[in-house]
Amino acid sequence: MSMRKNRTYEDDDGRTIADMSGVSRQPVFLPRLSGPPRAGNTPARPAPREESSRPWEETGLTKKEQLWYMLGALKAALLIALAFIGGLGVIVLLFFLSA
């Protein structure tokens, strides 16, 4: 006799949200990083979409607009890097002052 109880929930209508039948547990000590999938462990993958090799051409942006977008992204990355460098500088300064 099983010790497990069957629980019924009031709001359970029996529908499946996500099919987890193809998911299995990965070994802890020797994880499989790559290679062909094992039998019975093949997840259903959607068909690849047909994508353009140059999606930026479909946006209708001019060369100048593309340049400004790239410079804006570079500015944002540099500001984030500056914040990290400043924080690291403060930590190093505190180490020097405490020694």
What is the H/E order?
H
Q: Percent range for helical residues?
A: 25-40%
Q: Tell me, what's the shape?
A: extended
Taking the alpha carbons of the first and last residues, their distance comes to 68 Å
The main β sheet shows up as:
none
Provide a descriptive summary of the structure in words.
Helices cover 36% and strands 0% of the residues. It is an all-alpha fold and 99 residues long. The radius of gyration is 27 Å and the shape is extended. The model has no long low-confidence stretch (mean pLDDT 80).
Summarize the structure.
This protein has 99 residues and is mainly α. Helix content is 36%, strand content 0%.
Descriptive key words:
99 residues; mainly alpha; 1 helix; 36% helix
Topology summary:
Layout (H helix, E strand, L loop, with lengths): L62 H36 L1
